[in-house]
Task: structure prediction
Amino acid sequence: MMRVQFLGCGDAFGSGGRFNTCILLEAGGPPCLIDCGASSLIAMKRFGVDPNTIGSIFISHLHADHFGGLPFFILDAQFARRRAPLTIAGPAGLRDRLVQAMELYFPGSSRTSQKFELAVLEWTPQQPMVFNGATVTPYQVYHDGTAPYFALRVELAGQVVAYSGDTEWSEALLEAARAADLFICEAYFYDKAVKTHLDLKTLEAHLPAIQARRLILTHLSPDMLARVGELEYDVAEDGLVIEL
Result:
């Protein structure tokens, strides 16, 4: 069995008062996170999640609302005398961007020696990587064209959770989410097709091909939040727990 908790499901601008993206996966071993947006450490402590239990963090892309919580997470681990190893995996450029972010937020922090083993790895598209029993396969999608962006397919405890990341419609989502037990997908707009993000009507057209067992919409704009009561799909909320 896998337990999924949305620690944050908001967009970059705090729409609806929601925390930035951060999704906790637990299945008996060290828990893992999908994304770690700027507010994620606050969210973890709000919902009673001990950051020092997290074994791995999977980053979809290098925007602050998806990876900007890492400097806070690492610094907190140092002050809390963390001993357990931590692996962070994400797009090419993650190692350099993490150092830059740490130095911007807390000058000198990237050069502080940790008392725990920290590994920073970078995705190769469609090449699975294994972390504490979780197999993660990254699929390159399209957000704004400035850097690699990924949808993630996570296989853990016999269950599959797929996550779209931030993207306009991409055929890669078909492979990332096909027959997943849970597909967590952004639906930033209802029917407004734009570059960089996915709208619900475009997503709906592809759901028969994806055939995910369950869909949860996330990363909603004010346009979508205003429609939540009329949607026929499940919608993420900060703190929401799902068992697979």
In short: The chain has a mean pLDDT of 96.
